[in-house]
Design goal:
Blueprint: E1 7-8, H1 9-12, E2 17-24, E3 30-34, E4 55-56, E5 81-88, E6 93-98, H2 110-121, E7 127-129, E8 151-153, H3 154-164, H4 167-178, H5 181-195, H6 217-227, H7 231-236, E9 241-247, E10 253-259, H8 263-266, E11 276-285, E12 289-297, E13 303-311, H9 314-326
Antiparallel strand pairs: 1-4, 2-3, 5-6, 5-13, 7-8, 9-10, 11-12, 12-13
Helix pairs in contact: 2-3, 2-4, 2-6, 3-4, 4-5
Length: 330
């Protein structure tokens, strides 16, 4: 399925939902337009209508749009994964889609939204200071060893966030940008709405299981696609490891070396021939299962975003993702 392009709005209305606002087109013909963030399919809204209201510009004119499962012409086994999708970024084409509008726990895929918001509202050179809140005691939570009083730049923290998936780094960033985790989450939800990711809601910046914290695969596509506009994010998601030096509260230097858990980057999983995995983000919690989002390119240089949420095992996650990437060649 391809993205909606400019078209006469009388034909476009069937893909929209009831609004409550009335616009007047040529000949003073009124159109009932509507937008509600609670609509079950994200992205169907209009930006500010043009002067000529019989020609409306959908916000998703340069994005893939899908409102149902897509599997025709594919041979993908997703029996052990609840949600999956493959989008061609350059052609605005949905190649495969399974349950892409189902609300799911995102685990650490959340951190892509954290990085996006941090760069929109903060400076890469900003110095962040850790509070006592970086001490996360939840069992199984991934930590990078950041302590109260430690200082590092936003750029360093973003590397730790996306390479090592440090939950303490997420808190450091959130408080450094907004003064509190709660304030930062308000920005996350505000920016998600602006992106059209209207079926997602963030209660924290790291993705540990929380009430009212969820995404859809389609919304993750929107978020990841927007995050890739920042060169630093594109660079970080490609890194198999990262080493840096920061300072503690006394000014003493502390070295930190972290590794990526993305098996395509570590060489423990192989993409199909002629497909290059640029990078992405992994995520795992009991509630979310195994999750993975990738940016890949084919031999011609076309870009693809692939997503899997709630896979049962790491083996099924990577087998399914490789199976999904095989569809790029078809």
């Amino acid at each position: 399925m391809k993205c909606i392009n400019k078209k006469n709005i009388t034909g476009f209305l069937t893909g929209l939902f009831l609004l409550g606002a009335t616009f007047t087109g040529c000949g003073n013909k009124p159109y009932e337009m509507a937008y509600t963030p609670d609509y079950p399919v994200s992205s169907y809204r209009l930006d500010s209508p043009a002067e000529s209201y019989d020609m409306a510009e959908p916000f998703a004119k340069d994005l893939c749009v899908v409102d149902k499962d897509v599997s025709a012409g594919t041979d993908v086994d997703m029996s052990e994964t609840e949600v999956a999708a493959l989008f061609c970024v350059d052609n605005n084409q949905t190649i495969y889609a399974k349950n892409v509008h189902e609300k799911m726990a995102p685990a650490s895929l959340t951190k892509l939204m954290t990085a996006l918001v941090a760069l929109k509202y903060g400076s890469p050179d900003a110095m962040l200071t850790a509070t006592a809140n970086v001490k996360i005691t939840e069992s199984g939570a991934q930590l990078s060893g950041i302590k109260e009083g430690d200082q590092m730049t936003l750029t360093q923290a973003l590397h730790v966030l996306l390479v090592n998936s440090g939950n303490d780094a997420a808190v450091l960033i959130a408080e450094g940008i907004s003064g509190s985790v709660e304030g930062f989450c308000e920005l996350m939800n505000q920016e998600a709405q602006k992106l059209g990711a209207t079926n997602s809601h963030f209660s924290n910046p790291h993705g540990l299981t929380a009430e009212d914290h969820y995404v859809t695969a389609y919304d993750m596509y929107l978020i990841f696609n927007a995050a890739l506009d920042y060169n630093i994010i594109s660079e970080i998601i490609h890194m198999p490891n990262y080493t840096t030096v920061y300072h503690d509260r006394e000014g003493n230097a502390k070295e930190l070396s972290v590794n990526n858990s993305n098996l395509y980057l570590t060489g423990d999983a192989s993409a199909p021939e002629a497909i290059t995995v640029i990078g992405g983000k992994t995520g795992t919690t009991n509630a979310a299962g195994r999750c993975l989002i990738l940016l890949s390119k084919d031999a011609a240089g076309k870009s693809y975003i692939s997503i899997m949420l709630h896979s049962e095992t790491r083996e099924s996650l990577y087998a399914g993702m490789t199976d999904l990437l095989e569809e790029i060649k078809n």
